[in-house]
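User: Can you write out an input/output pair for a complex, sequences first and structure second?

Assistant: Here is one pair. Inputs:
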Amino acid sequence: MPELPEVETTRRGLAPHVIGRRIVSLKVRQPALRWPVPQDLGHRLAGGMVAGIGRRGKYLLLEVEGGPTRGCLILHLGMSGSLRVVEADTPPGPHDHVDLVFGDGRALRLRDPRRFGALLWQAGDGERHPLLAHLGAEPLSDAFTADYLYQRTRGRSASIKQVLMDANLVTGMGNIYANEALFEAGIDPRHPAGRLAMARCTRLVAAIRCTLERAIEAGGSSLRDFVGPDGSPGYFQQQYAVYGRAGAPCRHCGRAIRQIRQANRSTFFCATCQR
DNA sequence: CCGACAACCTGTGAGC
DNA sequence: TGCTCACAGGTTGTCG
């Protein structure tokens, strides 16, 4: 489920409930996530305190201080992960794999049916972790400019849609928002990335920003509380322009939205509005 | 360096 | 109702 807007909404929703909390223990019911949960993770965390919660791309970064090691608990939600704050004695559901138990009797609970998510540790600065070290620009930061996009796409023959989903170029764009941003920019998803003119890079960068910011805003206002015994945080139902709308009329021109496959992922676009 | 593709897992909905 | 199949919002690793 989670692309950048959902992860950012999760970060903001959790912040007031985890920052400043003392960590008592880590309960791992299922260590087999995308990578095994490190065996010694509980020892590293116990006694520490959550000093902050950040985000890099789709990774959540819990900064931990005051324990045995100063470092960062790295969380990725994969395709199906979600986080909630529950009373620590709330009985876990079938896919509630990990609890980070706090001193106040609550716990941060990770649910992830498909187990594509991850829970990792990096001593010191979390962004030094090998999985994060080579990530591309944050799309909402000043580093993500038309010039950056233009330079980094030169020589790439792959389609612009595939390249937008390359986290080492720009982080956080998943299948949904790659589709949506390309529609917003009026660019054909099949267009070779390396042949995008500068003017189109400018439009695309603006469209990406706008699409993501709107989604974060929608998430912030419609997301249910992160604190409670059951249910998932209920990711917001966006009003998508193209994603999942094959055959439905384009909201601009009224012609049918097309669906194709690119790199084994579904692509949705309007062949009239996107060139 | 680049790109195509398989792999990791479970749930769900369509079609028979 | 129950079976099988395709597909799902992510990312890495391998191979050519």
